[in-house]
Amino acid sequence: MVRRTDPDQQGDPGQHLSHFQGNRLQEVRRPCDAGVKGEGRMNATTSFRKVLVLVALGLAAGCSSQAPAPQRTAAAPPATPKAIPESRIGLRTADVLATSKVPPIEPVTAEPGEAPLPQRPYPSSPPVIPHSVDGLLPITASENACLGCHDPANAGDSGATPIPASHRPGGKLDGRRYLCVFCHVPQTKATPLVENQFQP
Question: In Å, what is the CA distance from 94 to each residue of 2, 91, 194, 195?
């Protein structure tokens, strides 16, 4: 029921003003205990609660009727790899904790000019020293015994490989290249642990 009233239109003077706002449409409801069954706010709330309970029971019944999920069996742990024996670790092929006698390194004893020149593994590789270096070390910036044979002025008479022009900018040995054994290494008679199969 909707009615429209003004706050100053009362039947008897002195009565309280209407609780309705003037000049507006207002909804008027009967109280819940008006004696009319099936109507009112309480009945609507009760019906809504019943519907919620029925929906909850239906969901619970549906969930419980499903078949239980299969249980997962634990995967078998991975197999433990076998330990590598110490005699197979590295190139030594011996127990790493054992104290073994290391054979002495036997250097090349050929005098300069006696041994043939080893073949270079690739064209721009620095040549190795094919002769003994006893008495030629140490090499310093002021004292270099290698220049006695490998200086271009002396190489023609001795038959040694002359120092290339890349080492002598301006016709003088570069101060950064005086230490010959930094790139050109002396040889030994040791057997290689692994055969070199490099192909240029």
Answer: 106, 9, 16, 19
Q: Is 175 a member of any domain?
A: yes
Q: Give the CATH number, domain containing residue 173.
A: 1.10.1130.10
Within a domain: 112:
no
- How many C-beta atoms lie closer than 10 Å to residue 120's C-beta? 12
Q: Which pLDDT tens digit goes with each residue over 140-197?
A: 989 999 999 999 998 888 889 999 999 999 888 888 888 999 999 999 988 888 888 8
Q: How far is CA 129 from CA 60, 144, 151, 191, in A?
A: 91, 15, 15, 17
CB 121 within 8 A of CB 185: no
Domain that holds residue 157: 145-182
Which residue in this structure is represented by tokens 């290698």?
146
26 bridge partner residues: 3
d(CA 163, CA 173): 9
Q: How far is it, in rounded angstroms, from Cα 129 to Cα 113?
A: 11
